[in-house]
Amino acid sequence: AIELALETREEAIAVGADEIYPEEFAAVDEYAYECLDYFNAGGTQAEFDADIDNFDALYTSFAKAIELEDKYALIIARGFDEYDVKNFNAGVAAVNAAYDIAYDTTDGKAILAQLEEADARYTTVLNNGYNISFVLSLRENAISYGAEELFPDELYGVDEYAEASLVAYNAGGTQNELD
């Protein structure tokens, strides 16, 4: 178990977690040494195993947080946050919840759970954003071939339908309705 935590720690270092979050990373390292000292002073194996699982989750959380910063930046750069407001806001809320938990406790599993929720939300935003961008490129292609002049009412109807679908989705509609 300790090998897994050490491996996860090295993976976090490989993505720069110790440089991006130096104080937090050092605090987890210090906490790990304190738990090891406690175990060596007579702590139980069960307590130590629980601590190892927690360190693994904490170190994994550092790498996940960095990954999410990259996804967030990509979403903003491409303007996808405007296409899937619902999932984007839920992703931001989950990241904020993870940071709140991290400031209040060392519960690695709770932090990681929030970051994984954010990851799922951001991934959905990216998928929806790419799909909507593709549809918009098809629309532009149709316009370039004269669809706006040849079929103005139909094009307007499709635009209205697409806009209404996106608004309904962001107001609480389902993924199937958007697809």
Written account of the structure:
This protein has 179 residues and is mainly alpha-helical. Helix content is 86%, strand content 0%. It has nine helices and no strands. Helix 3 runs antiparallel to helix 4 and helix 5 runs antiparallel to helix 6. The relative contact order is 0.10.
What topology does this entry show?
Blueprint: H1 2-14, H2 17-20, H3 22-40, H4 45-78, H5 85-104, H6 108-144, H7 147-150, H8 152-170, H9 175-178
Helix pairs in contact: 1-4, 3-4, 4-6, 5-6
Q: Tags for this entry?
A:
179 residues, mainly alpha, 86% helix, elongated
Query: Percent of residues in helical segments?
Result: over 70%
Identify the quaternary structure here: single chain
**Beta-strand share of residues:** under 5%
Uncertain runs are none
The residue-averaged pLDDT reads 86
